[in-house]
Specification:
By secondary structure, this protein is an all-alpha fold. The chain has one domain. It has seven helices and no strands. The chain has helices at residues 6-78, 81-95, 97-106, 109-139, 147-175, 178-205, 211-236. α5 (147-175) runs antiparallel to α6 and α6 runs antiparallel to α7. It is elongated. The termini are far apart.
């Protein structure tokens, strides 16, 4: 009867270790692949969010620039303070896209919050400028002309802001961005402010020229209200 040798025992021990390693190796490899895949997925989501945010901001910016440019052309010929108030605000609204787009590009949550604060500040400044121009027009009234063009400018402002609002609000909800949502709400209300320009043209055509600066004052007060609402939105939420 052959007795088991020490070498046989060592050989079987080595084989056992080999089988054990063979079983655990793929397990470790799968785990490492899973970890790498999980990490890679996080990076991809961040990049996708960044690109989506930049694209959303760029589209809304282009829409508002076109609308503001068209309104500026009309203002030169109509000299309406109501249109000027709306034009100033729309131009300021377009400028808020720049820091917000940069924040998305850098994938910075803190940058998004700062961009939201810049949105609020820009709205406030535009309200102050519009108030100054409106008070000046109340003190020094001026006749309006090209009323049909003035009404058309109001339609342009409403359409441009509403389209931009839809783009920003959908993007803000999709990306869970308080700053983009605030900017979308801001643009939506701006659209209704633009309707005030149409009301101004109608009132002046009906023989009430003083209605133009009065409507401009109402628009200014609405802009101040937008400032407060936007501030509450940014202060109350944090981007993820």
């Amino acid at each position: 009867m052959r007795l088991p040798l020490a070498t046989d025992h060592r050989h079987r021990h080595v084989e056992d270790e080999h089988v054990h390693d063979h079983g655990s190796g793929p397990h470790r490899h799968d785990a490492e692949q899973h970890a790498r895949g999980h990490s890679h997925g996080l990076v991809d989501r961040s990049i996708v969010r960044s690109r989506d945010g930049v694209r959303t901001v760029a589209i809304s910016l282009a829409i508002l620039v076109v609308a503001a440019t068209a309104q500026a052309v009309v203002f030169v010929s109509t000299n309406s303070v109501a249109l000027l108030a709306d034009l100033i605000h729309n131009a300021g609204d377009a400028s808020t896209a720049v820091p917000l787009g940069i924040a998305f590009y850098l994938r910075s949550a803190r940058g998004e919050r700062l961009a939201g604060l810049f949105v609020v500040f820009t709205i406030f400044v535009s309200a102050c400028v519009a108030l100054y121009e409106t008070i000046g027009r109340l003190i020094h009234p001026q006749d309006l002309s090209h009323l049909w063009a003035l009404a058309a400018a109001g339609v342009i402002g409403f359409a441009g802001n509403e389209i931009a609002a839809q783009v920003r609000l959908r993007g803000g909800k999709r990306l869970d961005s308080p700053a983009l949502i605030a900017d979308g709400n801001h643009a939506r209300v701006d659209g209704f402010v633009s309707l005030g320009v149409i009301a101004s043209a109608v009132a002046v055509a009906a023989g009430l020229p003083v209605a133009d600066p009065i409507i401009g004052l109402v628009i200014t007060l609405v802009i101040f209200k937008i400032t407060w609402d936007s501030w509450r939105t940014i202060r109350g939420r944090h981007p993820h």
